[in-house]
UniProtKB/TrEMBL annotation:
Belongs to the AB hydrolase superfamily. This is Dienelactone hydrolase. It comes from the Bacteria. SUPFAM superfamilies: alpha/beta-Hydrolases. Gene3D superfamilies: alpha/beta hydrolase (3.40.50.1820). The lineage of its organism: Bacteria, Bacillati, Actinomycetota, Actinomycetes, Kitasatosporales.
Length: 241
């Protein structure tokens, strides 16, 4: 186990002052880096711990903010902010680029070796960065199987891994089919893993507030999805080249 150093970073995006969580591995050398995007409720200790876990593996990791330091635990409030955001690729890209700039500016980051891992809305943002042609080494999206504007997916320059629960009513079979058809038509290097019996946000530990219908934790699949993401990073973003 390596010693991880963490700090809070403030930056501006979407007209808000965002508060991200940066995790650094031991040492002073440059390392590959991972951008970590949260679910629509916003940045929480769940994503902070995931950034820390990635730093334990040797990556520089930034868990980025969606809502200016707020966590939207009331479903209606979360939907009121996220639905317009998910309908606006340019806004999503702006949020992603602002976080990416912070990650690239970190002296420990190798700016030529960056991946994006996102959950829900954070996963949609990771995909939009890819669709805008950002030079990423890998994109992983968990229950964020969004489709983009016509023709733009062909700009994705890296492997795309996607995970979804079979019983997810938000990322329905029709949404899955649209996502995979878009990836295939674009000639992307893509994979989709469907976790049997899992609901939306199956990766996220239980919370102490109300959630949307169809949201639920699946401990086994949460662990499996994490291992799948780590395997993707091991393949596409090794410590040395």
């Amino acid at each position: 186990m390596t010693t991880v150093t963490t700090r809070t970073v403030a930056y501006t995006a979407d007209g808000l002052t965002m508060t991200g969580h940066l995790a650094l591995p031991a040492g002073a050398d440059r390392r590959p880096a991972v951008l970590v995007g949260p679910e629509g409720v916003g940045l929480s200790d769940v994503e902070r711990r995931r950034a820390d876990a990635l730093a334990e593996l040797g990556y520089v990791a930034l868990a980025f903010d969606l809502h200016g330091g707020r966590y939207l635990g009331v479903p209606e409030e979360m939907l009121a902010r996220c639905m317009p955001l998910l309908a606006d690729p340019d806004r999503m890209r702006d949020i992603g680029y602002a976080a990416l700039d912070v990650l690239r500016a970190e002296p420990r980051t190798d700016p030529d070796r960056i991946a994006a891992v996102g959950y829900g809305t954070g996963g949609a943002i990771a995909l939009e960065l890819g669709r805008d042609g950002v030079d990423l080494r890998a994109i992983a999206t968990v229950n964020g199987l969004t489709t983009g504007r016509p023709g733009e997916t062909a700009r994705i320059r890296c492997p795309v891994w996607a995970g979804v629960g079979s019983e997810d009513p938000i990322m329905s079979p029709a949404q899955r089919d649209a996502f995979t058809a878009e990836m295939q038509a674009a000639g992307a290097d893509w994979r989709l893993v469907v976790y049997g019996g899992a609901l939306h946000a199956f990766h996220h530990p239980p919370v102490d507030h109300s959630v949307l219908p169809g949201v639920g934790h699946h401990p086994q699949h949460a662990q499996r999805a994490w291992r799948d993401i780590v395997d993707l990073l091991t393949e596409c973003l090794p410590m040395t080249e």
